[in-house]
Every structure is written in C-alpha cells, then in structure tokens.
Amino acid sequence: MGFLDKQFGKWKYCPECRTWGARSLFGKTRCRNSGCSHFDVQLTMEPVPEPPLRKPLKNHAGSFNPANTVSFRYRNFQGEERSYTGDANSVRIRGDHVSIRLLPAGVRAAFRRKHFIGAAPVPPGGNALKPTPQEAQILGYWRRREESGRGVSLPERYLDLKKKFPSWR
Ligand SMILES: [Zn+2]
What we know:
With 169 residues, the chain is α+β, with helices and mostly antiparallel strands. It folds into three domains: 2-45, no CATH class; 51-127, no CATH class; 133-164, no CATH class. The protein has three helices and nine strands; from the N terminus they run αβββββββββαα. The strands form three sheets. A three-stranded antiparallel beta sheet has the order 1-2-3, with no helix packed on it. A three-stranded antiparallel beta sheet has the order 5-4-9, with no helix packed on it. A three-stranded antiparallel beta sheet has the order 6-7-8, with no helix packed on it. The N and C termini lie far apart (42 Å).
C-alpha cells in the first residue's frame, strides 16, 4: 500500500486550502495541511517535490539584474545540495515555503523551509523565519535539557532547528 501510494497520485495544490504538496488519487484529494478537511497524516511523511516553476517575468528574462542579491544552500527533495542566488528584495514567506526570484532568469521558485542548509533568505524589512509552534516546543524542551548541563544526548532534529533559528528564544 505504501509503495502504491508513492507511485500514484499527482502532486498539486490543494483545491480547498491552496497548500502545495497535496495529492490526488482516483479523484480523492489528500492534503498535508492539518487544518484542512482533506488532511491525511500519511502525506506529511512523504517528501514533497518543489512546486512547479512559474514562467520568467517578460521584462526580466535573460537580463535579471537585481540590486541586492542573497545566496543560500538548499537540499532538494532528492537529497541533493545546491546553491542558489536570488533577488534579496523578492523574498516572501508563504506558510511552509520561502519564495524568491532566482538568478539568472528571474524565475520565482519556492523552497521548503526545513530543507535550507543554514539560514534561509529573509524578506525585505525583516521578519526572520520563526519556528512553528511544534518547532518552538522542540527547541524549548531540548534547550532546557541542554542548558541543564547534565550531558544529555541531543536529537538531530533539535540541533538542526538550533542552526536554523540561532537567535530564537
Ligand atoms: Zn488542503
């Protein structure tokens, strides 16, 4: 059953809540957003491909030359690490994704925030990514244990989150 689930079902935006990474199988929609009526917990355990790229802006195609750029590293859903550079002023946060217009063609692409290696680009004017309530809970819990100085072994999930949100308290 798990195998079939992975092989079938087209990736799409959920028709109800617009979350990327929903799947449709035999006309039935399953969604990864826990607040959605199509929510299926199994889906949250599957790696999700990047949303389809949009077409380059007409004006920018081939000559996209933003004043401020930002570079970052990212692990795609096949586990490959890649470096990207994009327009620092184009960064937006949409739910679970950071979207940015990339060099060289100005195509906007969305990146799942948990797959950034190191810091994710920050939207202009500033709000750095904040942990989700669940991530905040993990951070809080394990930070207390870490700071208790009792030499507990810390889970990788916590160490990753700490790297991602270095200044979050
Ligand atoms: Zn949905």
